[in-house]
Write a structure and sequence with these properties.
heterodimer; A: 755 residues; alpha/beta; Rossmann fold; 4 domains; 7-stranded mixed sheet; B: alpha+beta; Nucleotidyltransferase, domain 5; Serine Threonine Protein Phosphatase 5, Tetratricopeptide repeat; two-stranded antiparallel sheet; 17 helices
């Protein structure tokens, strides 16, 4: 009985077993323990002993030691390895002895912050209640804010609140900033891309304010596994950090299984829904009373799976033992589900990635992932939810038919073999940098010679003087505007003037979301299906001048994909190299995008259901791109070249995110049969965020791996003439598209051409 | 010499600026700007002396001095005023580069006013540019340290926290403990919230002080005007701001006098039923029903309009009830029911009165019935439900022939006899 019997079924049942592309056993590992540090107080040890902790894992002990020695630290270990002890022990020890000392904790979401505060409050109570711990976020009542500002020993907040609510009012937080000893940043890996680039700047501003008040806090970061924790931490906090990654937490044996749903239409490359397959596999575990977590890709999927699974195991007569968990549930309800999971009263939980982050739900025995979560780091986080120290566990990743998923399911090494991807940030992205220099100048005037993020911002400051935003007087630059700049800078998008989406369903007019200017023509053109919190909205009208879109809620079985006519001009080549006949480059480009039409695409199968016209003005974006040119050899069949380029561009666009920890929608591709700049057939991959956040340079650095990966995917794809899982459907790229694209890429890498 | 010209001259010829400002003779005051220099830097100081007999709108400027602070303490709900003479306090109003708050907002002009000898001395600390701030704050600190308190309009939420931030940012230690602070917005709201919806200084100037600003620079244009000055160096652009700020401070003094005037029952001017209403309400909230009743009764004699009548009667009914003058309260509720039939409270109170005091079940039911019909008409579900419960209970009581002395639970819970 138990997990072994389910694994046996997966091995024996031919219909299941034939779909398994990889099965790997990770052997058990025993705990590596260390004593509590000598400097730890007895009553702090008592707090831990009460929780059954008599010794630390080696990584915890090492991290505590490094923090206590004064280092900036980043701890990188898997889910449920007790990361929070690494910062809570030194922080409590310090404040316990030095009551005026302060710590600032940053979590990417409010829910995580609240979780952490509950735990911190318990510690504090047991230590005599003098260490006051508060969350400070948008939900904090005005009446409580004053007390938090002056008396909060540990203030738990999120980067957005630090950016718009705390730093611009630093004089009200004088007690915090004068006495700030520790800044704790958990879930460090989530601060990447545009968001991370913003957060890096918020932290630069934090350094400035601390300098003003004469403090120099230490940074203690914790991250899920990423390839570059030290570099990433350094890029965010602006100082080198000691990496602690010798995980000492114990681990039971774990089976990891990759599962590819069966093909139902070979020529179109359509597979059976991953949702249904995941449901089938999760039910196997649940029916054997194995506590299981199922990760779904959206909130709707979560609800659908809960319904299916309750139905499937209803015969057991315990329908309530399956719960859903996602954003949008009330905090109280979430706490209840977490508690019941820890107690084992909930048998199965279906969750969005909300449970991927550090919420404490104990360890479950099985995890089923519906689709590849998008990054290796997330995959390991989700897989880490299953796995107890003393029992064996299992993870099944059920892939869907997207190119990323198909690559992953056929290349187990991608997840199992290599480490996680690099988290990338570009804090010096010009748009982001200038936004935050404004915020910083609002907070404190800049003084001549002052460095910001390690470089002299004088040029930007002088520019802002010309823009009448700053005033230069004496040796300083002062904020000279009525505006409060932080409200105009959203950390979660790069461009500042956003379009709002107004829901007019049933005569209401509620703002449901925002889209940045550059995404607007793609995402909220008239006729688009805009998806927000898994609800679908049909865009009825886009008022481009007023930056508003009006929508009503619908239930459609398709989404829309706008076709951009993109013109791309190279402005500056940052680096370039010749490999064989191919020249690779990256640099600055100007992308002029105009949306002419959009396609309606059916969910999951990605069938094309029709199209519509869009008439909107052209938008210019100054950004960065990676590109390569492969001169034609011999006579050229333009049509074949066209379809080769288009197919190669499509697969590049879908494969590149594998390396970048980003969404496919963060990148755009342009294929030019004869580029005016390179004079040859060229494929550009550009970043959609103005200025770029470092993806282009990274693609340039890993060009060979990138192109090889595309070729591998093309070679392995079972479709005949292209499908949504590789170069796109054959009727888009032409009947020879798949073959031509492969040949083009193989030539580019000077590989032996197959077939 | 016109102010504008003077400012320009002083801006370009600093040695001239060191001359002391002319003291104003009686009558029309003159304005003057001097460059003040100190260890922390320099700034422009504009001092004007206003005779205490100057009439601002319809108020004599020095009138506020005649009131002891204690007289305003209750209305302002500011304990510190009990031991403070208004004449020793300083009026303060700032002009800033924005209203958003946060450390990027600069109070580039700080105006103060206080009594000095026979004059009302109005001082304006004006920053020629951002670097003047520390010098301004040092000078302001000196003035504040001599005063026994602050009088502002919305200074509790805006000017004072902003200034405290600026002192901190510029590292000018403010050795002032807890300052007595009379923020006129709050007492003004207590008296005139219903008369002037916004209770902004300009609506009070118009309605209470009899001041109509002419050619006044609207507050919303102040930041841009200052930025324009910074960009162009045209000091003349600032004269409108200085003028605006002068009017603000004079209005604070006049408003203080007008508020003080209304704190004594005997002095309440004609047709000030709203002020009486404000006091009745305030006294009720502070557990002084006798005082509340006095103001309620008085208010009804001061030609209240319909809205004021309604509120005065409601206060009066409540006050009588707390004083256990049940019959008098019932009379007030009868008048209310007659005059304002949509008001539900009178029916409820009358039903209780008839049931518990008069012990007249029929009339109690009749009142409850009226209340029920009105509540239903207004679709006030919770109220209708309460009336209908009351009716059922009255009905039951009559049929069971139980003693009418057995009080209903919900009435007993009110904490009063009925």
């Amino acid at each position: 009985m138990g997990i072994e019997s389910v694994l046996e079924t997966l091995r024996r049942d031919p219909s299941l077993h034939s779909q398994i592309t990889h099965w790997q056993k990770i052997p058990a590992k025993s705990a590596q323990l260390a004593d509590f540090p000598a400097w730890m107080d007895e009553d702090l040890k008592t707090v831990l002993r009460k929780r059954g902790i008599g010794k630390l894992y080696t990584h915890q002990a090492e991290a505590c030691g490094a923090v206590w020695a004064g280092d900036d630290v980043v701890v990188v270990t898997p889910t449920a390895s007790g990361k929070s002890l690494c910062y809570n022990i030194p922080v409590f020890q310090r404040i316990h002895h030095q009551p005026e000392a302060r710590a600032l904790y940053l979590f990417p979401t409010k829910a995580l912050a609240q979780d952490q505060v509950a735990e911190l409050m318990q510690w504090s109570d047991e230590l005599g209640g003098t260490i006051k711990t508060y969350t400070y976020d948008g939900d904090t009542p005005a009446s409580a804010r004053r007390a938090i500002r002056s008396a909060g020993s540990i203030v738990v907040t999120n980067p957005d609140m630090l950016h718009s609510g705390i730093l611009p009012h630093h004089t009200k937080w004088i007690r915090l900033f004068e006495n700030l000893e520790y800044v704790v940043i958990d879930e460090l890996h989530s601060y990447r891309g545009v968001f991370g680039s913003h957060v890096a700047n918020v932290l630069r501003r934090l350094h400035r304010i601390c300098r003003f008040y004469g403090s120099r806090p230490q940074f203690v970061c914790a991250s899920a596994t990423i390839a570059n924790p030290g570099d990433h931490a350094a890029a965010l906090i602006g100082r080198p950090a000691v990496v602690i990654d010798n995980n000492g937490a114990p681990q039971g044996e774990k089976d990891i299984i990759l599962y590819n749903p069966p093909v139902v239409n070979a020529s179109l490359g359509i597979r059976r829904s991953a949702l249904l397959e995941a449901q089938k596999i999760a039910a196997l575990f649940l029916k054997d009373n194995i506590q299981t977590i199922v990760f779904a890709r959206s909130r709707t999927d979560t609800e659908v799976l809960v319904t299916y699974l309750r139905r499937a195991i209803h015969r057991l007569g315990q329908p309530q033992t399956i719960r859903g968990y996602r954003g949008g549930y009330l905090p109280k309800q979430r706490r209840e589900i977490e508690r019941d999971l820890r107690r084992g009263e909930v048998l199965g939980v279906v969750s969005t990635n909300a449970l991927e982050l550090g919420v404490d739900i104990g360890s479950l025995q099985a995890a089923v992932l519906t689709g590849y979560p998008g990054t290796i780091a997330s995959t390991w986080q989700q897989m880490g939810r299953a796995g107890r120290s003393d029992e064996s566990s299992a993870v099944v990743i059920v892939c869907n038919s997207s190119p990323l998923n198909q690559f992953v399911v056929n290349h187990p090494d991608f997840i199992m073999g290599q480490g996680a991807e690099r988290a990338l940030v570009n804090p010096d992205n010009m748009f982001i940098l200038v936004s935050h220099i404004k915020c910083a100048a609002f907070e404190l005037p800049f003084t001549e010679g002052e460095l910001y993020g390690g470089s002299d911002p004088a040029d930007i400051l002088d520019f802002l003087v010309e823009e009448h935003v700053l005033r230069r007087a004496g040796d300083r630059w002062y904020w000279m505007s009525e505006n409060y700049p932080a409200v105009h800078v959203s950390l979660r998008s790069a461009s500042t003037d956003n379009f709002t989406i107004v829901d007019t369903t049933n005569g209401s007019s509620t703002i449901i979301g925002e889209v940045d200017r550059f995404s607007a023509p793609m995402m909220i053109h008239e006729g688009a299906i805009y998806i927000h919190e898994s609800s679908q909205y049909h865009i009825d009208q886009l008022d481009f001048d007023r930056q508003k879109a009006y929508a009503h809620q619908v239930k459609a079985d398709y989404y829309t994909d706008a076709n951009l006519a993109v013109e791309l001009k190279v402005l500056d080549t940052s680096d370039s190299c010749q490999e064989g006949i191919v020249t690779h480059s990256w640099g600055e480009v100007m992308v002029a995008a105009k949306t002419h039409m959009y396609k309606k695409i059916r969910f999951y199968t990605h069938e094309n259901l029709g199209w519509g016209e869009v008439s909107l003005p052209e938008l210019e974006t100054h950004t960065t791109a990676y590109w390569f040119v492969k001169p034609t050899t011999g006579p050229t069949d333009t049509e074949a070249l066209q379809s080769a380029l288009m197919g190669a561009a499509n697969i590049l666009r879908n494969t590149a995110p594998l390396e970048l920890m980003c969404e496919p929608s963060d990148l755009g591709v342009v294929a030019q049969v004869r580029s005016p700049f390179t004079q040859g057939p060229t494929i550009f991959i550009y970043e959609k965020y103005p200025g770029g956040v470092g993806f282009s340079q990274r693609l340039y650095d890993i060009r060979e791996a990138l192109l090889s990966r595309c070729i591998e995917l093309l070679r392995a794809c079972p479709c005949e003439n292209g499908c949504p899982s590789c170069v796109g459907p054959g009727d888009e790229v032409g009947p020879r598209g798949k073959h031509a694209a492969r040949q083009f890429l193989e030539e580019a890498l000077q590989l032996e051409i197959q077939g | 010499m016109k102010f504008r010209d003077k400012l320009r001259r002083f801006a370009s010829e600093p040695e001239m600026a060191k001359q002391p400002a002319e003291h104003a003779a009686a009558g029309e005051p003159t304005l003057g700007a001097v460059l003040r220099e100190g260890p922390a830097g320099a700034f422009w100081l504009v001092e004007t002396h206003w005779p205490l007999s100057h009439i601002h709108g319809r108020t004599v400027l020095g009138q506020f001095m005649q009131t002891p602070g204690s007289q305003l303490a209750f209305l302002a709900q500011e304990e510190g005023l009990y031991g403070t003479a208004l004449a020793d306090m300083v009026f303060l109003d700032t002009e800033t580069t924005g209203l958003a708050g946060g450390t990027g907002t600069l109070p580039f002009l700080i105006g103060t006013g206080r009594v000095e000898g026979d004059f009302f001395l109005l001082r304006q600390y004006l920053m020629r540019d951002y670097p003047d701030e520390p010098a301004v704050l040092e000078a302001l600190k000196e003035e504040l340290q001599q005063a026994s308190g602050l009088i502002t309009f919305n200074g509790r939420r805006f000017d004072w926290p902003l200034l405290k931030d600026r002192f901190m940012l510029n590292r000018v230690p403010l050795a002032i403990g807890s300052l007595v602070h009379l923020d006129l917005l709050y007492p003004a709201r207590r008296l005139w919230r219903y008369r002037f919806h916004s209770c902004s200084l300009s609506s009070l100037e118009e309605g209470i002080l009899g001041i109509e600003r002419q050619n006044d620079l609207p507050g919303s244009q102040v930041p841009q005007r200052y930025f324009d000055y910074l960009a162009s160096g045209e000091a003349g652009l600032l004269s409108d701001i200085l003028h605006h700020n002068v009017t603000d401070i004079l209005s604070l003094a006049a408003l203080t006098a007008q508020l003080a005037k209304r704190t004594s029952l005997e002095q309440l001017p004609e047709a000030s039923a709203w002020e009486a209403e404000g006091f009745a309400h305030l006294y009720l909230r502070h557990g002084q029903p006798e005082e509340a009743a006095r103001f309620g009764e008085l208010g009804l004699t001061l030609n209240p309009d319909r809205r004021a009548s309604r509120r005065l009667l409601l206060h009066l009914g409540r006050a009588y009830k707390r004083m256990h003058l049940h019959a008098a309260a019932a009379n007030v509720y009868l008048v209310l029911a007659e005059e304002f039939p949509k008001e539900l409270l009178p029916y409820e109170e009358l039903a209780k009165y008839y049931e518990h005091v008069e012990k007249d079940g029929d009339r109690a039911s009749a009142a409850a019935q009226q209340g029920l019909s009105m509540a239903q008409l207004q679709k006030a579900a919770a109220k209708a439900e309460a009336f209908s419960r009351r009716l059922q209970r009255l009905d039951r009581k009559r049929h069971q022939g139980r003693s009418v002395l057995s009080f209903a639970q919900d009435d007993r819970d009110n904490g009063t006899l009925f």
